[in-house]
């Protein structure tokens, strides 16, 4: 059969996967967004359904001051003796921790903190022992650190020691250990999460090493596929299917055009088959590369890949597709299936130290159309094409100096803030319908006021891309409200939300 990559489009970086019986579970990093660590379920590795988030309570997810390169980094999910573990790093508040549950559809435990350097923690369970790995460094440079921990308390039982130093690429990270046949395989990434990204591996006869690098490294990379739209492939995790075949779920991103090396939709989840040779080493994908269209005879033709392309308030949910910045002030949101009402505070979109009234859904494709109706309001409120607090394009209603209300298209690009065009809202306009059309290279803005469409021009996607913003996240399409006086009781009411994406 044939399937398309990414298998989970949009900002879902650093995938980790495990299998429990005949069901696969996958988690991703989530940075400054709340709830944290999206959790997916699949029966066939191609179709993934989000079943919630792992971190759903402020006690598990303190996000104060977390920005788009802070908060929750790469997680690992593992299943051992009926218990699921998810281990990750809150780089802004607290470091490494894991949570666990016996009910994957239920709540997860309070965090159990683990004291070890680095990022990208990973767990490996065998013979009653729990091995904890992360990236790190010592006097000789970067390395994969490993210690044994008590899986109840998180206490380190052995000194952390360097078990592998990689193959020399920069940013050795995302270690995962597997026992397959007679070897322990240690897989990791190098090259950084940008265009030089790659997956490398090593193996040894014991979980502590020593580990010998695979002569065919890297086992997966698209770094030599110049002009190919799928780039940055790395940071993977292995899983075996019920037929004994191995697969890698890994991240990659889609640059917007062969000669325009930037992307807006974040790092996404891709799937490639893993093939073992007679020498016991493996390679992944098509000759070590990931492709946008993959052929495989390991999945039956009867499996059909589906992608959700239409999103309304009625078929999405807050805390599922809709997420918040840092720890939201819940009293400022009234979210129902036909109206999202937001109460602005004096925390602006650019704040790194507070949670603005903001609720966002991922931009999963470069081509999309979005419309939403906003009732007249006396605070600032609208839609934001939001990459980070300092890179976003907004279409909003805004109180103006003459006591009226204006419709404004704003671009914030770092310290540059530009508001144009500005249209005064006629007194009889009870509402406006805001429209944004996404294209690979631009976002086009328009609005309908009293039955008349106003073209508000286009802004380039390049300037809010990950390459320009220097962040780890992807574009969110957000509804927000902001009231600098914090003095009025007004609510901004959004209705008739429709987002349609074109894969
Ligand atoms: C993550 C690291 C990486 O922790 O990027 O692509 C970092 N790999 O492994 C942030 O996602």
Overall mean pLDDT stands at 97
For the record, give the distance between the C-alpha atoms at the N and C termini, rounded to a whole number.
Answer: 19 Å
Shape: globular
What value does the Rg take, in angstroms? 23 Å
* CATH topology (level 3) name of the largest domain: Tachylectin-2, Chain A
| Helix count from the secondary structure assignment | 1
Number of structural units classed as domains: 2
Helix content: under 10%
pLDDT below 50 for ≥5 consecutive residues: which ranges? none
CATH-defined architecture of the largest domain: 5 Propeller
Structural class: mainly beta
**Main sheet properties:** 8 strands, antiparallel
CATH class of the largest domain: Mainly Beta
Strand fraction? over 45%
CATH superfamily of the largest domain: Glycosyl hydrolase domain, family 43
Give a structural overview.
The chain is an all-beta fold and 503 residues long. The chain has 2 domains: 2-295, 5 Propeller (Tachylectin-2, Chain A); 310-501, Sandwich (Jelly Rolls), CATH 2.60.120.200. The protein has 1 helix and 38 strands. The chain has one helix at 466-469, and strands at residues 2-4, 16-20, 23-27, 33-34, 36-42, 49-55, 76-80, 83-90, 95-101, 112-114, 122-126, 129-138, 141-149, 161-164, 173-180, 183-190, 198-204, 212-213, 230-240, 246-254, 268-276, 282-284, 293-295, 310-312, 323-325, 333-335, 339-342, 357-362, 368-375, 380-388, 391-399, 405-413, 416-424, 431-438, 442-449, 452-460, 476-482, 492-501. The strands form 8 sheets. An 8-stranded antiparallel beta sheet has the order 4-25-28-37-30-31-32-33, with no helix packed on it. Strand 31 (391-399) and strand 32 form a beta hairpin. The longest helix has 4 residues, at 466-469. It is globular and about 75 Å long. The model has no long low-confidence stretch (mean pLDDT 97). (Z)-L-Arabinonhydroximo-1,4-lactone binds next to strand 15 and strand 19.
């Amino acid at each position: 059969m044939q399937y398309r990559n990414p298998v989970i489009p949009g900002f879902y970086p650093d995938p980790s996967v495990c299998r429990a019986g005949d069901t696969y579970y996958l988690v991703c990093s989530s940075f400054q967004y709340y709830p944290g660590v999206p959790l997916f379920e699949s029966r066939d590795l191609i179709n993934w359904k989000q079943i919630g988030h792992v971190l759903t309570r402020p006690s598990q997810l303190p996000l104060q001051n977390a920005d788009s390169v802070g908060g929750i980094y790469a997680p690992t999910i593992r299943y051992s003796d009926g218990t699921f573990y998810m281990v990750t790093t809150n780089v802004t508040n607290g470091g490494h921790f894991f949570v666990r549950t016996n009910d994957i559809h239920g709540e997860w435990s309070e965090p159990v903190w683990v004291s070890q350097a680095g990022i990208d923690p990973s767990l490996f369970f065998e013979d009653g022992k729990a091995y904890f790995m992360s990236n790190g460094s010592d006097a000789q440079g970067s390395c994969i650190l490993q210690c044994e921990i008590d899986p109840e308390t998180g206490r380190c039982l052995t000194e952390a020691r360097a078990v592998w130093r990689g193959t020399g690429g920069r940013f050795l990270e995302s270690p995962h250990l597997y026992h397959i046949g007679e070897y322990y395989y240690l897989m990791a990434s190098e090259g950084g999460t940008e265009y030089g990204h790659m997956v490398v591996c090593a193996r040894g006869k014991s979980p502590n090493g020593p580990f010998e690098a695979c002569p065919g490294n890297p086992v997966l990379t698209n770094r030599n596929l110049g002009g190919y739209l799928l780039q940055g492939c790395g940071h993977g995790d292995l899983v075996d299917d019920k037929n004994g075949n191995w697969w890698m779920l890994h991240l990659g991103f889609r640059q917007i055009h062969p000669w325009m090396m930037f992307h807006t939709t974040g790092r996404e989840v891709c799937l490639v088959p893993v093939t073992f040779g007679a020498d016991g080493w493996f390679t992944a994908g098509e000759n070590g590369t990931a492709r946008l269209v993959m052929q495989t005879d390991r999945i039956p033709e009867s499996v059909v890949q589906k992608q959700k392309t239409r999103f309304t308030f009625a078929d999405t949910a807050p805390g599922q597709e809709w997420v918040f910045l840092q720890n939201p002030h819940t009293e400022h949101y009234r979210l129902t299936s036909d109206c999202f009402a937001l109460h602005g505070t004096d925390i602006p979109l650019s704040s790194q130290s507070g949670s603005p009234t903001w609720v966002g859904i991922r931009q999963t494709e470069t081509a999309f159309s979005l419309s939403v109706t906003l009732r007249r309001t006396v605070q600032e409120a609208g839609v934001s094409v939001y990459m980070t607090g300092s890179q976003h394009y907004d279409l909003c209603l805004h109180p103006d100096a003459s006591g009226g209300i204006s419709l404004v298209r704003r671009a914030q690009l770092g310290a540059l803030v530009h508001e144009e065009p500005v249209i005064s809202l006629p007194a009889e306009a009870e509402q406006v319908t805001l429209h944004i059309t996404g294209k690979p290279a631009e976002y086009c803005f328009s609005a309908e006021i009293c039955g008349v469409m106003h073209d508000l021009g286009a802004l380039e996607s390049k300037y809010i891309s990950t390459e320009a913003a220097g962040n780890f996240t992807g574009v969110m399409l957000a509804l927000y409200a902001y009231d600098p006086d914090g003095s009025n009781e007004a609510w901004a009411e959004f209705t008739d939300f429709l987002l349609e994406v074109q894969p």
